[in-house]
Design brief:
Pfam families: Frag1
Strand content: under 5%
Mean pLDDT: 93
Number of domains: 1
Domain CWH43-like N-terminal: 4-203
Keywords: Membrane, Transmembrane, Transmembrane helix
Transmembrane segments: 60-80, 92-114, 126-145, 157-181, 193-212
Protein name: CWH43-like N-terminal domain-containing protein
Distance between the termini: 21 Å
Low-confidence stretches: 223-227
Oligomer: single chain
Length: 227
């Protein structure tokens, strides 16, 4: 059974959650109409706080978090199949994947809950998801570039994986510098940074899904072992 559809779903579901929720929230008058990736008119969280968008946001984002955990576990197995012997890094990928998935579940579950006691866990969940996901993507991009066979056969896709990592690093650095040097501008554009950071993270998953497809990463069952 080909596994790349699982990776495709892991990359597409978060994008579907935030964009469909935004349209529903804007249609309900809960957030303004705009291009949030450019205009920075609303945060991702604002799109999923209130019904009906909240139902779609949680209904898609929580399954997406579960898929992402499985995605990182399978990535560790895939790297072993490709001949990568850095087993400690494989285990770290799994740990980071679990951390990212749990963070996303906590954030999504508590989104819309009223009270200061929920702000800390929500913020922790967001930081865990973004931080762990970026670190995991950085590790797998590095490990894939180490494989000469992958560089020769799939150099184009590996190049774009690296571009995505550099773009997100640049976004993060600019975001931090704006917070220090220009607080007012930082407040005006911080939402757009989050939208674009999320987009780039999901694109990385989708490109990895294409690598799974090209390398024929499959789940197989040996019935002889069950007899």
């Amino acid at each position: 059974m080909p596994l790349f559809p699982l990776a495709l779903a892991a990359g597409l579901l978060p994008l579907a959650a935030i964009n469909i929720s935004y349209v529903l929230a804007a249609n309900a008058g809960q957030v303004p109409w705009c291009l949030p990736y450019i205009d920075s008119c609303t945060s991702i969280s604002a799109t999923g706080r209130l019904p009906p968008a909240a139902f779609v946001f949680k209904g898609l984002m929580i399954p997406a978090a579960v898929l992402l955990v499985h995605y990182w576990i399978l990535n560790a197995c895939w790297l072993r199949r490709l001949g990568c012997q850095r087993h400690r890094w494989h285990r770290l990928l799994v740990i980071l994947g679990l951390l990212a998935g749990c963070g996303l579940i906590i954030y999504s579950t508590l989104l819309g809950s009223i009270g200061p006691e929920y702000r800390g866990p929500r913020r922790t969940g967001v930081i865990a998801f973004f931080g762990a996901t970026y670190l995991a993507q950085l590790i797998i991009t590095w490990l894939l570039h180490e494989r000469q066979t992958m560089r020769v056969e799939h150099g184009g896709l590996l190049f774009w994986l690296l571009v995505l990592m550099l773009l997100n690093l640049l976004l993060g650095l600019v975001h931090v510098l704006l917070g220090i040097a220009a607080p007012r501008l930082y407040e005006a554009v911080t939402n757009a940074f989050a939208w674009n950071f999320t987009l780039l993270l999901c694109l990385h998953v989708l490109l990895t899904a294409e690598l799974w497809r090209r390398t024929r990463w499959r789940l197989s069952f040996n019935l002889d072992q069950l007899i």
